[in-house]
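Recall from the previous lesson that a structure prediction takes nothing but the amino acid sequence as input. Here we apply that procedure to BMP family ABC transporter substrate-binding protein from Motilibacter deserti. The sequence below is the only information supplied.
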Amino acid sequence: MRRGIRAAAVLAAAALALAGCGSDDEESPAASPSNGASKPPAAVELKIGMAYDVGGRGDQSFNDAAAAGLDKAKAELGAESQEVEAVTGEAESAREERLTQLAEGGYNPVIAVGFVYATSLAKVAPQFPDTHFAIIDSTDATGDNIANLVFAEEEGSFLVGAAAALKSKSGNVGFVGGVNTPLINKFEAGFKAGAEAAKPGIKVQSQYLTQPPDFSGFGDPAKGKTAAQGMFDAGADIVYQAAGGSGGGVFEAAKAAGGKAIGVDSDQALTADASVRDVILTSMLKKVDVAVYDFLQTVAQDQFKAGTVSFDLEQGGVDYSTTGGQVDDIKAQLDDYKQQIIDGSITVPTTVS
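The prediction returns the following tokens.
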């Protein structure tokens, strides 16, 4: 989380080093996230402002996925960037100041990584009508110059929930959420639905690390480890984490308990610390990198559209990983569930019943 050009002291303008260098209707992504098609050259040069959530680059999860999309844009679209990140426990005014300084510094577009920026963005965006903004994981901030990049996290979580149930020997699995918010509730709801579909009557333990307005649950591996240890001690043999940087602690707990864990956002069998990669059964893939790159491409081609852009299972916006081969024996079953979701035979809940 802490590579690239960024600033930790968010309230000081000097720390940003910003020297010169609408509608709410749902839209389909400009290109299928999974089609891999080559992109035409950028029509304009971009100066991108990227405001990460707590932890920034290096979280091996959500922020790193956004960073991957930014890096691709810099390489393929000839863009430059300024990267800053949120600080645990900061006030709302700090996030507002961060976005303001990026816009004042001439960065356009500006991407807010995470729903915690919604209130700040709603205040800042109207002050800079010529700046294109995007926010990931929120539709609470809307406007003629705001694109809302959202995902069907519940669909991908259903698949890894099914994987957990099919691979569990104890009939007991767990879910660790970083912060108890409607967004993370979608991960839990999908995971529980998938587990119960694959093994009716399975026990699913759930725990959130913090409650709003405390968002430290996304960056506290020690809390993640303690929560997961409790689940393993209570009979779980597989734990799914949707907890950002705290997920590293869940992996450590799985290693110590001789259990398995499920990653989130990125393919964490490739990005987690090498000492724990073997405990990662699969990961719920959330293609934040695709969303970021596609958004930047539309801006580069002067095709920006305000409003909601959704990335779901059918579009390849979410999925499950197969790295390590630990779910190869159940892949056919998981792919059948995937097709049923795409066909509409299965409707995945977004809230926990």
